Amino acid sequence: MAPSGLSGRFQQVRQQTEALIKPLTAEDCQLQSMADASPAKWHLAHITWFFETFILERYENGFKPFDASFRVLFNSYYNGVGDKHPRPQRGLISRPSLQEVLAYRAQVNERMLAVLGQRWEPGHPDREELVGLVTLGLHHEQQHQELLLTDIKHALSFNPLQPAYARHWPLAGISPQPLHWLPFAGGLLEHGFDTATDGLFAFDNETPRHKVYIAPFEIGSRLVTNGEMMAFIEDGGYRRAALWLSMGWDWVQNTGATLPLYWQAHADGGLYQNFTLQGLVQVDPNTPACHLSYFEADAYARWAGARLPTEFEWELAARSVTAQQAAQGNFIEGTAYHPIPLQQQSPGSPAQMFGDVWEWTQSNYTPYPGYRPWEGLVGEYNGKFMCNQLVLRGGSCATPQSHARASYRNFFPPDAQWQFSGLRLTRDIT
Description:
The chain is an alpha+beta fold. It is built from nine helices and twelve strands. The chain has two domains: 3-156; 181-428, paralog of FGE (formylglycine-generating enzyme), CATH 3.90.1580. The relative contact order is 0.14.
């Protein structure tokens, strides 16, 4: 895409982010509920910092920062840029105010559009690098759109008033969909980003494409539901050490976990309740189980007589779907901001592969054979985190639809719950 063609896309993505804070007050945007989360105001500033630091500083004639102190305040983890404000203390940054941050965004937007409007000779190396960096910046901003929603949900959950972020969730009675097992023969197969099927953009951790041997397996036709998680709970799932990895059982003991995150036991012993971005609702048994840690997903799979898929098994199953149609699902654009029940299944094809919840895999987040991080400061984007994390696939109800592709790799530590994460079962074929 030419620089001029990026202008419209740039404005669209930036406006989408600001639309997400419309339901929030300035006080909401200041909240930081834990070290792993960030205030909405910080997200707004950081993704503006990205464009100012990596693009305007290089390409703008007579560059002058909006505020020189922002270089430290809103740096996330780029050691090559310089000092950073401690992540656990982002909620203590009461100044600049939300209005000042929005003014920062507006000024950087104007300057970015001026840079994108410059005339560039076709094939000029700076032109090609500019397009690449702006494209990365837009995908980066879309990742922060998802983080903004997950982080504000976590923060609002501590309010005893249990406030709703939005109230337009299409709740409807849905009949339960049975779980079917879909077989895959496996073999020595190509995996990783494929320009022929996955679009024009990928993060560096999706490359290079390479061969992986996969033994025959069968995968669940749909996601695990809340009703199935209830059965696990009622069967003592959180009290049976034999179901848990050693680290997982330590996590249960240390946290006192007895329910998935945001679930509440009803005072009169009735149905569980669940805090959502739509407020407090009854847990719907047919909705995909959500906000599970890797430990919980793994324990449930073991209790169910199955296991979690590897990321390569998941990708193979996902490509069986995208070979027939573009990735479809419940994404951030649908504004449900929560998983929704499966309404129908297609025989022989796995459902809910994209959207609703990120699906835990049993694969460690490691580089593919031949992996090389991007050059320059953006080389710190993914590779430095390839240790002690697990891969998730498929996207969620808070993921932009344009990020839905079979090669996309998300990653979190095994105890992470605040992301929209669930699971799909897999079994070996012997």
